[in-house]
Amino acid sequence: MVLVFAERSDDELYRQAVAFARGLAPDTVQAVEIDDGGAYSPDGAAAALANLIRERTPGAVVAPGSERGNEVLAHVAAQLDLPMAANCVSATPGDPLTLTRVRWGGSLLEEARLHGSPPLLTVAPHAVAADPDWIVPELIPAAAGRVKVSERVTSTTAGVSLADADVVVSGGRGVGSAEGFAVIEELAELLHAAVGCSRAVTSAGWRPHTDQVGQTGTKIAPSLYIACGISGATQHMAGCKGAKKLLAINPDREASIFASADYAVIGDLHEVVPAISAEIRSKRGG
Ligand SMILES: Cc1cc2nc3c(=O)[nH]c(=O)nc-3n(C[C@H](O)[C@H](O)[C@H](O)COP(=O)(O)OP(=O)(O)OC[C@H]3O[C@@H](n4cnc5c(N)ncnc54)[C@H](O)[C@@H]3O)c2cc1C
Q1: Ligand 1 mean position to 248 CA, how many Å?
Q2: Which atom in ligand 1 lies closest to the alpha carbon of residue 231?
Q3: How many Å apart are CA 167 and CA 283, to the nearest integer?
């Protein structure tokens, strides 16, 4: 039997996890959703899952490769001293289990063998088609956890959400300062776009981490990504490779971002970006 952890039963990633689990054990898949009453308690959810694993002795445990799925399964791995592999795209049962998983922000596929039982696996988002014949998960209560919510803070990012934006205007170290983002914000507003940035910018404290695009930031897939003063490090590109068109603005014609760009402007963003904004304004008649 393969046990699936459902983050939310109506979720596409959960249905993908069910499809993945059926590839491991076509006839015997069970699914559970943990009811934590809306509290954020990854160790409490994991403790409930760990109890179930002890009772039902599944051959493998599968979860969606969401932040929650990865976090809860990592807690289960720590609590039961079990092996875990995140972001799997395929797996073949056996002892050891063999699997292929996504590494390095999507730039590498790793083939691995996982020793120990049951293996804990999360499924890389959108790597397998969702199962149309999914299972309604059994609802079980969360166990007591040590992690407690002490305060809830509303995101300070106003306007268009970065993850869903159709156009994103991002700034990198080349912007030069927090104040330098005024020209990026101005263009973003004119295009109804979200503002993004590189990690050099969040590390400098110029923008909040919620604005960061990349491997350790938000993954975006806009129609147009405008990257201003960004060199194009692999960790940044891992977050924006879903963009349909990329416009890069950088004075360094050797910058690696130009290898991925559809449109290139070799120049200083502090001249080019205000010029684009002015052109948009004049075309709109104001
Ligand atoms: C484990 C790990 C995870 C990481 N995760 C992320 C991540 O999620 N996101 C991320 O972005 N990075 C990430 N990084 C960091 C990444 O490796 C790079 O250091 C970072 O992306 C560089 O940011 P940048 O392009 O803004 O800065 P730089 O590499 O310093 O590039 C600045 C660019 O600005 C240009 N420039 C200078 N002046 C101007 C001007 N006036 N006009 C226009 N252009 C100008 C320069 O020519 C240069 O190309 C990660 C690194 C590690 C090790």
Answers
A1: 13
A2: 49
A3: 19
- Pick from 249, 285, 282: which is nearest to 267 by CA? 249
> Between the CA of residue 202 and those of 55, 172, 173, 209, 248, what are the distances in Å?
45, 9, 10, 6, 20
- Residue 193 CA to residue 217 CA, distance in Å, equals 18
Are the C-beta atoms of residues 28 and 1 closer than 8 Å to each other?
Answer: yes
Residue with tokens 């350790």: 216
Separation between Cα atoms, residue 217 and residue 116, nearest integer Å: 32
pTM for the structure as a whole: 0.71
Phi (first) and psi of residue 160, to 5 degrees: -70, 135
Q: pLDDT for 131-184, tens place per residue?
A: 888 789 999 999 988 888 888 877 655 567 888 899 999 999 999 999 999 999
- Between the CA of 65 and the centroid of ligand 1 the distance, in Å, is 27
